[in-house]
Specification:
The structure is a homodimer of 121-residue chains.
Chain A: H1 2-11, H2 17-26, E1 31-32, H3 33-43, H4 51-63, E2 67-69, E3 85-88, H5 90-112
Antiparallel strand pairs in A: 1-3, 2-3
Chain A binds a DNA duplex (30 and 30 nucleotides) through residues 16-18, 32-35, 49-57, 59-60, 79-84.
Chain lengths: 121, 121
Amino acid sequence: MGMDRDRRERESLPLRRVEFHILLSLAAGERHGYGIIQDIEARDEKAVPDVGTMYRALARMVENRLIEAAARRPAADAGDERRNYYRITDAGRRMARAEARRLEALTRAARIGGLLAKATK
Amino acid sequence: MGMDRDRRERESLPLRRVEFHILLSLAAGERHGYGIIQDIEARDEKAVPDVGTMYRALARMVENRLIEAAARRPAADAGDERRNYYRITDAGRRMARAEARRLEALTRAARIGGLLAKATK
DNA sequence: CGTACATATATGCGCCACACATCTAACGGC
DNA sequence: GCCGTTAGATGTGTGGCGCATATATGTACG
């Protein structure tokens, strides 16, 4: 059982770029699609996904239980009826952690390979 | 001129996954296609590219001057005539550095977002 | 109040990156 | 000489993603 879960997670790595960005954004709190895009824009202007890519990814990830529709919009924003809010699931958080570890290892390899300066901290 | 080069590099990021893996592997020394695959396997079992993807990527990257065919095989291995050895070019190293910085920033974001432990070194 | 622009979500289309499958052939051990 | 491994190459299919477009609500402003 736990084995099955682990295997599924391992097999679906590496995560798609959009998906990791989405999970990373939602790890900080509930957000709606357009808001996630702006969040990514703020963090890395070079990797901003297309809106089509975004909404399709959201649908797919709900399907895969990596995220779920937030029951109701967060307090402050009672206004805009159009927005669909999402939250990260436990499975999503596990996936994001696994992928983050992968990226970290890659980064470490790059540093060892002399492609990055010693301590960028 | 320098500007043009910088712009081209920035626009073609992020690198394809295979390509970064190849550059990362070749940054450590000259290698042949099959050897690169084994190198990647050793480093990250989850992201091992298909052989088809690999050989096509190598051809493309030679075309784009990110790598080049090594004139002749490295000393110790005078044996196997089948092997095609490659080495990283300056342009390739620049691209790899840029991509490594991108991944490093992503990793940092993941750490800030609580998806990674504090100091992994 | 109208209308112009930003916000928000959604979908058809086409390209291309990649995995999968298959092929060829040289290598090394027995 | 046979056979499994190593090495490289190529045809094919799927799916992710960018591009364009559609639709509709929110908001600012005269």
